[in-house]
Each structure stands twice: as structure tokens, then as C-alpha cells.
Amino acid sequence: MTGDRTVAAIDCGTNSIRLLIASAGPDGHLVEQARDLELVRLGQGVDTTGAFHPDALERTFTACRTFARAITEHHCDDVRFVATSAARDVSNRDEFFAGVRKALGVDAEVIAGSEEAGLSFAGAMSGIEVSEEPVLVIDCGGGSTELVLGRETKIDSQVSLNIGSVRLRERFLHDDPPTAEQIDEARTYVREMLTECPVDMATAHTVVGVAGTVTSLSAINQGLTEYDRAKVHRSVLTADQVAGLADTLLASTVDEVEQMGPLRRRRAEVLCGGALIIDEVCHRTTAGELVVSETDILDGMALAMLAQGR
């Protein structure tokens, strides 16, 4: 990797769109130039309609235009835009592609769940020092959850499951707060998905969580009133703390959740669904705790771009 190149990685998920601008330092690690996040809820109603809502598309394109200005200011040599769960099966993808191309001047790539899992694993491992392997990386997004079991740069098994915070909220957790029956239905669905998945979660000696659900749980657990990446990164949640947070979030209204920590409204609306998923995964591990990582798929993308000289 060369330190004179600057790349921009954009991850467009079901709930958020995020930007990382970085170069490579002398030791090969990323040197972050800029990082941004907008909660655009691109996956609004997708699980029901199979199409992007016009309002969701416009929110996403507005964020893309903001990112484009940052990319220009940092004189980026290359830009990669990946779209994940929400964009895989929608009927109006062409409208999405055209809008991204107009705003950013690059084509959106809809990557498979397997590539998403691999990039998340690489990104998480780049920012966490692990003493006990194998490592299970959990990436709980709005539309899907990736589980990756591996050691250093070697992946043993991985899966991308169609369960995420937005998808679970829209499909099962309709009330505010959800009813006991809705929570039971959601847990049953998640448990069935996890039982059928090929990743043996119980064999992991270290469990690492990435993305907005996990980082938000850490911020709430620490009582943060303003989000602090340094305090969240490498923080640890016990399995009991995860279970307690999930129960509290599922019993609370969105207004109440929003007051629990430095949460934006669109995160607060779906956090209970993501917490339920993380809780169910943690129940199947034996490590007893969850290490929280601020490095994730964006970091994996940037590292790959610099390594390949894209």
C-alpha cells in the first residue's frame, strides 16, 4: 500500500449510508481523513413493497451529494460505493443506480452477502487485537446480519441472514413499544434463522460486534450523552448486559429510547430489533462477552482498495 493515495469508501445499507476517506500509513494501517454517517432509511418499506420509496431515495441522494463534496475536498484518487441488503432484490434498482451515478459520478455495486461478510471481518480485525481465536464477527445491519467465523485473515465459515433491525421492526415489532406476542414472534423467527445457519457460533473464543446496533448498545451501557468513538471502540458488553439492554429497549417507546443515549431518531426507531438479534446470537456463544469495534466494512473496503491499487 502506498501512503500518497487517498480513497473513499461508501457503504449504503438499509438504515444508514456511511463514508470513510482514508490513506495508508507507513505501517500499512489506515489513516482516517474523514468519516460521516447519515441515517437515510433506504430500506423503508422494502420488506413489504419490494421497491425503494421515493422519499428514501431522495434522502439517500441528498447524502450522496454531501459525500461528493467531501470527496472533492480531500482529492480522493478512487471511490467505491457498495450497496448491501436493501438493494439486492428491489424492483426499482435502476432508479437508485442512476441517482448515485448523478450525485457521485461512480456506479453503485450491489455486493453479495458473502463479500459483505468478508469485508466486515477484515475491517473488524484491523482494529481489534485478539488473543483468543477463532473469532466470531457479528455485523447486524438494517436488512441483514452477517456472521463470520475465522482466524486473522482466514475465514472458516460465514453467512448473511435476512434479519436486520429495520426488517425485524417492520415485520414483527409493530407497536410502540412492541407487545409480548410480537417479541415472541420476532425471537422465534430469529432463532429459526440462527439454528439453520452454517456458522458454529459456540466455537468462537472471541466475539466482536460491529455497526450501529452494537455501537449504540455500548454508548447506552456507558451512559454517554455525546457519542465518543474512542470510548465505544474496544469497549466490552457482557452477555447479561446485552440481554438486559435488549429487554429494556423492547419494553420502551421510541421516544424513551431516544433519551437513553446519543441516538438519532431513525436509529432509536429500530434499535430494539437489532438488540434482539444481537442478544439471540450472544445466547449461542460461549465467550460470555461482546467486544465492540468501530472498524467495520468501511475499513475493510478502504484497506482492499489501497492494497489493490484501485
From TrEMBL:
CDD domains: ASKHA_NBD_MtPPX2-like. PANTHER family: EXOPOLYPHOSPHATASE, EXOPOLYPHOSPHATASE 2. It comes from the Bacteria. Pfam families: Ppx-GppA (PF02541). Residues 33-306 form the Ppx/GppA phosphatase N-terminal domain. This is Exopolyphosphatase. One of its GO terms (molecular function) is pyrophosphatase activity. Gene3D superfamilies: 3.30.420.40, Exopolyphosphatase. Domain 2.
